[in-house]
């Protein structure tokens, strides 16, 4: 005899999980019964934890609008065998800079065609890319230089009246904005790499009482006087900075120097109007497709189909919540991947129900249900594994150059793979326990 206690507890847990996912899936602001509500974001702060999570959907460039930047890399001074490595290194540094700028949803990729080596950057949600392009395009090479004649410090530092000490931005471990504890003014605090601490200590020991000029990309930013030797590998850069300037320069230094010069050759702003229209059409298409699937399952399988429909609705709520928690950058191809996974989400139920039609003739309904799930599993597993392999190839998580590297295609593959994983959960775990609880022997009409 089928025991309902354990499945009932599982169903309770499933519905609790669905309610939690439903809360996460809500828009930030929504109206209900004529009242406006605001869904809070995750903000947990304590002595041990500081968890802050924005629960809004992250939209790609084609949906949210933003900026499309194309940089051309000058690889003329790079040996032929090292050009690809240099271009990839520049792409990685640009991607790191963009992430530091706060646009981690950006898509950064390289393109080499007819002797032109380019880096394409897409920045969703940024309609004014001027600041971002400045961060991306700077070579960001910091150079500590000493004056040929220390008295020249009174007229300012130039490349002509200074010589390099050999200590550069490559010797930095990290930099961060800070405040001078004595003067209370914004400064840049830095820490050198372990093997560079000795070199910096020797330089500052030799220049005690003398100015040390600091250049960023051949432009002087300050030339403070060395008060005492800095031998512990930590120090400060002063220069009358504003708070924003210390943040800006710190980001550049942490991101490193570009291995090759890059030039901005194309800058295009993508309006969000097209994205809003695309979202509206995708939502309509999704609702029509979902309604047709729900109706088909009820007409074809009766009560069994109704249970499958409940599982499909749970699948949609969990998927949307997962998109927000990961977060998944949602693009038009990504929406297509989700819509495809909706149709695939009922595949496992169809296989199980067709098997159930055969099994219930020979055995009690409860036993037939369990046997149907067990015998349909092999087909469900093989079908979904083959699709997951395809999604893996399209997503190319290992960044193999002989496979696809397109951001939109990867977005399609990621949403498809997540959909398959969740469809297995809803098709096997959710539907199975719902059927155990709500379907009784002798009460199944189809």
The CATH architecture assignment of the largest domain turns out to be Up-down Bundle
Which spans of ≥5 residues are poorly predicted at pLDDT below 50? none
User: Biggest β-sheet, characterized?
Assistant: 4 strands, antiparallel
Topology as H/E string?
Answer: HEEEEEHEHEEHEEEEHEEEHEHHEHHHH
Number of domains: 3
**CATH fold annotation of the largest domain:** Multidrug efflux transporter AcrB transmembrane fold
Nearest-integer average pLDDT? 79
Number of helices: 12
Q: Roughly how much helix do the residues carry, as a percent range?
A: 40-55%
CATH class of the largest domain: Mainly Alpha
Query: Using only CA atoms, what is the Rg?
Result: 30 Å
CATH superfamily of the largest domain: Multidrug efflux transporter AcrB transmembrane domain
Compute the number of strand runs.
17
The spatial strand order of the largest sheet comes to 7-8-6-16
Strand content: 15-25%
Head-to-tail CA distance between termini:
22 Å
Choose one word for the global shape: elongated
Structural class call reads alpha+beta
What's the SSE blueprint?
Elements: H1 5-25, E1 29-32, E2 35-38, E3 42-45, E4 50-53, E5 58-59, H2 61-64, E6 66-73, H3 83-101, E7 107-113, E8 116-124, H4 130-137, E9 142-147, E10 162-168, E11 172-179, E12 186-192, H5 194-206, E13 212-216, E14 219-222, E15 234-237, H6 243-255, E16 262-270, H7 272-301, H8 303-325, E17 329-330, H9 332-345, H10 347-362, H11 365-395, H12 407-438
Helix pairs in contact: 1-8, 1-12, 3-4, 3-6, 7-8, 7-9, 8-12, 9-12, 10-11, 11-12
